[in-house]
Design a protein that fits this description.
By secondary structure, this protein is an alpha/beta fold. Among the domains are: about 250 residues, no CATH class; about 120 residues, no CATH class; about 90 residues, no CATH class; about 100 residues; about 35 residues. About 60% of the residues lie in helices and about 10% in strands. The protein has a four-stranded parallel beta sheet, sandwiched between helices. Strands 6-4-3-8 form a four-stranded mixed beta sheet. The protein has a three-stranded antiparallel beta sheet with strand order 9-11-10, covered by helices on one side. The longest helix has 26 residues. The protein starts with 7 loop residues before the first helix and ends in a 9-residue tail after the last helix.
């Protein structure tokens, strides 16, 4: 595109760019992680041989520059940056009223007037909360910023990071609390200009537009950095024109750009002869051109520069960086892949790594006067990737026991031809990533693309994405916590060489070393490190699968694990100490006002301590639990606490609990304490009755499963004695009354005749239908077979239904259906036979489904249908059926 065709603002910016180059300031507007941009940066620096290389990255990164340039550092790596940010907390109007009322007691009259004025606001800034914000700045071999640093090292150029410190970016951008990338390209992705350009070029998205316009140029054209970077600038600047200055300021871009302008201006003023290369994201370059054009870069008389002011500015610059904490960590291609949710850069890093290697090979061959074209390199690369993909697909087919459409030589040959022809059709200088994917789709998929199994595309994605993991110097400073965890995981033989998810099958009962592995994984899970997730095994929290002898965990070592460990390093240097501190804080929270069900929460904390292997703290918690069992509990929480104590007792050997006697004593205390709370079962609220019903059954289940060391027989006698004592109080709780009668019969506390008498009383003809249906539901939910075993129950229900009118029957029908829904089909059939026998109904008459129809049956049916339709028409009821 000719400069004259550009918007006037861009024309002026390009004039400013030319003027800056006259002053030896050279810009490289790049797309992050672009091989083409990296190749052009190499040519720029090799030609200019700058004295200074400035990079768009937080200024605080200068503290780890030596680590970045260390000979052992190999991408993919990333700088992990953390900062503690003060976040405002707001109160709503109700909280304001409380807060102001308290202030009125303490403040003078003048302060009260100010508070009353604030009452009219919707919200009031009342306090601040300190949170940690985390961000990554990743590098791969083909990142332009990485190549700029390597060549700056080669030419002994000074490297300076010129972006705002992360602490200031996190505040100004108002970023969400989740971890972020410092190389975000959201604006380019959502640009309407690029969207329209994609339509015009028949591209699917902004990635394909970029590859079509820049990555697939001839290597010689990319090496012409002046033209290449002018084109990347125009592409990014056109997208930037869509956004207003206010939106960019709100997002934080304007502040960052002003910071970069100041850094460039100060450097040029202090060193007028400096040759400067500036590597920035292309989206920001327009603002930098314009900002520098309006700034006075060079002071005419260098001697007049105020050295005191320079020192003051340098000190201010250093102070701005104090809020950032930076670490060099390993990164992975999986984490870097845009298709996995990364917000900046190119997708398929393994593919573009090979593209980068091809470009370096071309550069080396070019210097040696060897003639191999760009097209040759790209075709060879496409062939290599196709071969790798086919090999992986064949492996998957062998796993699937010989799936159909075996991939042989013919589909591979067809895919190669399609890839090459598509590249030629689209005017590319050799195949690109989209040509390769389209060639695969054309050759390997014979039916609809929607019919292809997910494994097919997953294999292709994994091949293009890769699993490469970076390296960092072994002697660099790392938080002790990171080193400790890494060493422990290595000791327990976890594989940490890549970021692919793996499965650990742990024999928790027979192998002591495996038991230690389990405890360490539970420790990491409790601290929410993100390393592993338990898939299977005994669950002592809910009492499920307690007989399973193995645990299965899925784990993977990712940069986020290191980030979380670094964040935890602020709390200590040992995982055990941090976990104990967290457990202690959880216990302290139980003393806060409003905390209910304390014993239930204490047992949950005890379980966590046991699973992590903290026997001493477990014993301490046992002692505290005894106090919490006495007060502040509901019946349901107390019963739940008892079950969890029972699960701990059942797993005492695996959990290595060293105070079984105290645990047993507490377990015996739970039912006795629960008996004092049985009076709460008299509540009449329908929903509360159902909750109490579940609690009652749970308490009975607990009593039935108590250890042999406890006198469970005596405890059950006390249980039913208290239930009998409770009976007169249950007049408004028929569901509970029915449940108690049923349980007493099941546990031989009352006889069949006594049960029949209770049923007869409950189904008295004067009883309200709501009471009857709830009582019946309580009986059946506890023991559905009672409808079959108790003739009195069926007879009483039958007599009641006979005397109810149709309106009352319709009202109770939903409740009856709900009660009978608890029965199995066989039980329903047995009851139906009993009712049929009483009313002398033949079994054939009860069969509503007929499978054979004669011609005579059909004629009778048609005649009946005609008669019904004729009657409807005579009564003029046609419109009634349309309602």
């Amino acid at each position: 595109m000719s400069r004259s065709q550009l918007p006037q603002r861009l024309q002026h910016a390009l004039i400013g760019k030319d003027a800056l180059q006259q002053q030896q300031i050279y810009f490289a507007p790049v797309r992050h992680h672009s091989p083409a941009c990296s190749y052009a940066v190499r040519q720029l620096i090799n030609q200019i041989k700058p004295t200074h290389v400035l990079i768009e990255a937080p200024a605080s990164f200068s503290s780890i520059l030596d680590e970045l340039l260390h000979h052992e550092t190999e991408p993919p790596i990333a700088i992990l940056c953390q900062a503690d940010i003060q976040i405002a907390k707001y109160l709503n109007n109700e909280e304001l009223a409380i807060g102001n009322e308290q202030d009125n007691e303490k403040d003078n009259e003048k302060d009260n007037e100010k508070d009353n004025e604030k009452d009219n606001d919707n919200e009031l800034l009342s306090a601040t909360e300190l949170i940690t914000r985390t961000a990554f700045y990743p590098f791969c071999s083909y990142s332009p910023e990485w190549q700029a640093m390597q060549l700056a090292k080669k030419y002994h150029a000074n490297i300076q990071f010129i972006d705002l410190p992360w602490a200031e970016q996190a505040v100004q951008e108002m970023m969400p609390k989740h971890d972020a990338s410092l190389l975000c390209e959201t604006y380019l992705k959502h640009s309407e200009y690029i969207t329209q350009l994609a339509r015009k070029l028949h591209c699917r998205d902004h990635d394909e537009v970029w590859e079509h316009l820049f990555e697939l140029r001839d290597f010689a054209d990319i090496a012409n950095w002046r033209t290449f970077f002018e084109d990347t600038f125009i592409w990014c600047a056109m997208a930037r024109l869509e956004y207003t200055a206010s939106s960019l300021e709100l997002e934080g871009s304007s502040q960052r750009e002003q910071h970069m302008i100041t850094a460039i201006r100060q450097l040029k003023q202090s060193m007028p002869e400096a040759k400067i290369v500036v590597v920035t994201g292309g989206f920001h370059t327009l603002a930098l051109y314009e900002g520098l054009a309006n700034a006075k870069l060079i002071v005419p008389n260098k001697a007049k520069i105020n050295k005191v002011n320079q020192q003051h500015e340098a000190k201010q610059w250093q102070n701005k960086n104090d809020g950032d904490r930076t670490w060099l960590i390993r990164y992975s291609f999986e984490r870097l892949d845009a298709l996995n949710g990364y917000f900046a850069g190119m997708p398929s890093p393994a593919y573009y790594q090979e593209v980068w290697q091809s470009m370096l090979t071309y550069e080396q061959n070019y210097e040696q006067n060897q003639s191999q074209t760009t097209q040759d390199h790209r075709q060879a690369q496409a062939l290599q990737f196709l071969s790798n993909i086919v090999q992986q697909l064949r492996k998957q087919q062998s796993v699937d026991n010989g799936a159909n459409n075996e991939i042989g030589l013919v589909p591979l040959k067809s895919a190669i031809e399609q890839t090459y022809l598509l590249a030629e059709l689209r005017g590319h200088c050799g195949p690109g990533r989209y040509d390769l994917l389209d060639g695969i789709q054309s050759a390997f998929i014979k039916g609809s693309i929607h019919d292809v199994r997910g494994e097919f595309w997953q294999i292709i994605h994994r091949t293009l994405s890769g699993d490469q993991f970076g390296k960092i110097p072994s002697n660099i400073a790392s938080p002790p916590l990171v080193n400790e965890v890494y060493a422990m995981l290595k000791k327990y033989r976890f594989k940490l060489d890549d970021t692919l998810p793996k499965i650990a099958h742990i024999d928790i009962y027979r192998k002591p070393e495996h038991r230690q592995r389990s405890r360490f994984l539970h420790l990491l899970a409790f601290l929410d490190v993100g390393f592993a997730q338990r898939l299977d095994g005994p669950n002592y929290q809910y009492g499920t699968r307690l007989t399973i002898m193995f645990e299965d965990w899925q784990y993977q070592w990712t940069p986020m694990v290191e980030a979380k460990l670094i964040e935890l390093s602020q709390q200590g240097t040992r995982l055990e100490h941090i976990a104990l501190q967290k457990l202690h804080l959880l216990m302290e929270s139980l003393t806060e006002d409003g905390i209910t069900q304390p014993c239930q929460l204490v047992v949950q904390i005890m379980l966590k301590a046991a699973l992590m292997g903290f026997p001493s703290y477990f014993t301490t918690l046992l002692t505290k639990l005894s106090k919490y069992l006495d007060t502040g509990n509901t019946l349901s929480s107390l019963v739940d606490c008892g079950h969890r104590l029972l699960y701990l007792w059942q797993g005492r050997d695996f959990l290595a609990l060293n105070d079984s006697a105290t645990l047993l004593a507490l377990l015996a205390k739970v039912p006795r304490q629960a008996f004092f709370l049985l009076d709460t079962l008299k509540q009449s609220d329908e929903q509360q009755q159902q909750e109490n019903f579940n609690t009652l059954l749970s308490l009975r289940d607990l009593l039935n499963n108590l250890p042999e060391q406890l006198n469970s027989k005596k405890l059950k006698q006390d249980f039913y004695f208290n239930l009998q004592r409770l009976q007169p109080l249950l007049t408004q709780a028929p569901l509970i009354r029915g449940a108690i009668d049923s349980l007493c019969y099941l546990d031989s506390q009352i006889s069949q005749s006594e049960l029949d008498e209770k049923i007869k009383i409950a189904f008295d003809l004067g009883a309200q239908y709501e009471q009857v249906s709830s009582y019946l539901t309580g009986l059946i939910q506890c023991s559905p077979e009672l409808l079959i075993q108790s003739s009195q129950l069926l007879m009483s229900l039958d007599e009641l239904l006979v005397h109810w009118d149709q309106e009352k029957f319709i009202q109770i029908l939903p409740d009856l259906r709900y009660a009978f829904a608890k029965l199995t089909p066989k039980q329903n059939a047995t009851i139906a036979e009993k009712i049929a026998k009483k009313y002398h109904i033949k079994k054939q008459s009860m069969d509503f489904e007929q499978y054979k129809f004669s011609d005579d049956d059909l004629q009778k049916t048609l005649a009946l249908e005609f008669a019904i339709c004729q009657y409807i028409n005579q009564q003029q009821l046609q419109d009634w059926f349309k309602r």
